[in-house]
Amino acid sequence: MKFISSIVGFVLFVLFFGFALKNTQEVDLRFFLNYELRGPLVLMLLGFFVAGASFGVLALTPTVFRHRREAHQQKSTIQTLQTVAQQGSAQPQPDSVNTQQ
After folding, report:
1. Contact 23, 37 (CB under 8 A)
2. pLDDT, tens digit (0-9, with 9 covering 90-100), for 39-90
3. The pTM is what?
4. Which 3 state secondary structure label does DSSP give 38?
5. DSSP letter string over 46-64?
């Protein structure tokens, strides 16, 4: 399986490297207030990809922390229930025994 993963990684690297070599022309990126950025197309694409991935990770951060907090609460609840179950595993004694019939 590691061999197949290495082959797939190598093929993807060759494809992306070829893409980068084919897209080296200069492009202008125009922002507001007449701000302009000039650079190779492949670097612009890479920069925006990294920025988008970073924003995606930042957007998921609160959800990840909430899930971790809930998992911790559930683990502590399970531990509490297990200790209560272990303490209460002995048979309860009856309140009273009626020997007269």
Report:
1. no
2. 888 888 889 999 999 999 999 999 999 999 999 999 999 999 888 888 766 6
3. 0.59
4. strand
5. HHHHHHHHHHHHHHHHHHH
